[in-house]
Design a protein that fits this description.
The structure is a homodimer. By secondary structure, chain A is α/β, with parallel strands linked by helices. Chain A folds into two domains: about 110 residues, Rossmann fold; about 150 residues, Dihydrodipicolinate Reductase, domain 2, CATH 3.30.360. Helix content of chain A is about 30%, strand content about 30%. The first copy, chain A, contains nine helices and 15 strands. Chain A has a nine-stranded mixed sheet with strand order 14-13-12-11-7-10-9-8-15. Chain A has a six-stranded parallel sheet with strand order 3-2-1-4-5-6, sandwiched between helices. In chain A, helix 3 packs parallel to helix 4 and helix 7 crosses helix 9. The longest helix of chain A has 15 residues. Chains A and B meet through helix 4, strand 8 and helix 9 of A and helix 4, strand 8 and helix 9 of B.
């Protein structure tokens, strides 16, 4: 099958770290245009904004949006209205309402809409799901800690209302959790800490209900120091293991087995996008975002110490 | 068609004010059992809890749950697992995750699940929708104010995390809003006031995006004194009118026209339930709850004066 041209909107850190390398190595896609006010990619046709791109998209039928969540919705609407296929970085939008509208528009326009969850593509996620099938889950604890100063240095917008705070990394855990537990899990309790003077949570403790009565819980912390911890401790009637490093490793107690780097996640995301576009399908699993919304619905909030960069 | 037996769980204020009178007048249903720890209905077989009822449901194939949101999920799961049809008061559950699980269970069990929105049955809602079809909406403002002391006297649980606060009446407005605007509306901004020492909002100011760019907004207030105000001020390119008293009246500026009392709402809810059960269908529109969840996701929160009954 021939390689398809794609436009990438939002040429920031995530685009350079993940999207562009994945597209450069992809058998399915080649980066044919960029849409960004601030940056360009050498040798690729550059547009300042979505309107400028849509004025002359050439043979490009697909746009990938690596923008922050806030401006993503307007861009997605414009692209779908112009009859283009759209891929969304996670989270797919700032609200469930925006997601609904994009789903409706894509269905009416007959284009592909792909709400991607890159962490779900982690090399060990399918292995964890395999171990859980046929076993009885007893306990699962999500331990998801990273230093916000490392991943969002000086980005004050992450603390503004309408953003997810620590649920921005947490939603990656949710995307894995929903996948490996086959959706048989739902939030029952949430406690959040919001830094004094800020609007989004820096940490959260969560409890979940599970179809078989297993104890499922999560600790999310953006105030962590040092290397990130992205683990799920899993105990079934057969075995105990840890799904490590955001779904890319497994630790059975005899040391960690690396099943493939995180960098493969975006290669798989773009392979999935190609499959959807070629089959004229869409994939918009909103359950991870619903889980974050449920946390905000349920949460007891307390005010923590002020946060300074 | 013959009248079908139904069980009613939760014999509190809403059951006595609405459900029981509607069932007594229904051509489709007769109240054949109650499930309640605290109360009975004269002449009707009484059960203390869902387990006691399910031990011997007789020929009853349908249960209506008029319990508060928190215990409703466990009861709904048990009833569906026993192969019964289930109707849920609004809101259908405390979280979207609970709703998903009930939807999945009902589909797998082949039973009817009806997430009812009684306010959507208001006699003037269809008239408002008719006026909006084919017209261009310019402005819509939801003005939804009531005295929490009148509707929930001394019920401290309404202020506990996991409840909706002022979004409990607000979700009635959302159920109408989604219906008359055909889903082409989504939340874009929310400001909430939470009483000092409480966990749920007493008031909220909301802004919405609309498919045609109309200005859509809402003011929800549980601290209102006097008779409730449940209005939607609507302006199109053709006319201005107010949908009054929670979707039961229309005011064109020459005084209010009452299109039928609120009491008819539950008659229509139970007629819809009968239609669903006879056709083996389900109706679980989660958009009003999603809109409330979106408000909690987006909200800027401020602390207001302490609330005392």
């Amino acid at each position: 099958m021939s390689s398809m041209p794609i436009a990438l909107a939002g040429i920031g850190k995530i685009a350079r770290d993940e999207h562009i390398p994945a597209l450069n190595d992809s058998p399915d896609w080649h980066l044919a245009a960029t849409i960004s006010r601030n940056a360009e990619v050498e040798g690729v046709r550059a547009h300042e904004d979505m309107d400028a791109f849509l004025a002359d998209p050439g043979d490009i039928r697909t746009v990938s949006l690596a923008l922050p969540p806030a401006p993503r919705f307007a861009y997605a609407k414009k692209a779908i209205a112009a009859g283009l296929n759209v891929m969304l970085e996670k989270p797919p939008a700032t609200t469930l309402g925006e997601c609904r509208i994009l789903q409706d528009m894509a269905r009416d326009a007959g284009v592909t809409l792909y709400a991607s969850w890159h962490s779900r593509m982690g090399a060990a996620v399918e292995e964890a799901a395999r171990r859980l099938r046929g076993a009885a889950l007893r306990r699962l604890h999500v331990d998801w800690r990273e230093d916000v100063r490392q991943f969002h240095p000086d980005q004050d917008w992450v603390w503004e209302a309408g953003n997810l705070g620590v649920f921005d990394p947490g939603i990656n855990a949710f995307s894995i959790l929903v996948a490996i537990l086959d959706g048989r899990v739902h939030l029952t309790r949430a406690e959040m800490v919001v830094p004094d003077g800020r609007e989004t949570p820096i940490s959260a403790d969560l409890e979940f209900g599970h179809g078989d009565g297993a104890r499922v819980s999560a600790r999310l912390d953006w105030g962590h120091k040092g290397a990130p911890v992205w683990n799920m401790e899993i105990e079934t009637d057969r075995e105990s293991f840890v799904l490590t490093r955001s779904g890319t490793g497994i630790d059975d107690g005899q040391g960690e087995i690396d099943l493939g780097g995180e960098t493969a996640e975006y290669a798989l995301v773009y392979a999935r996008l190609a499959e959807l576009v070629r089959g004229s399908g869409s994939d918009t699993d909103l359950r991870p975002l619903e889980m974050a919304a449920d946390a905000f619905l349920l949460a007891s909030r307390s005010i923590g110490p002020p946060f300074e960069w």
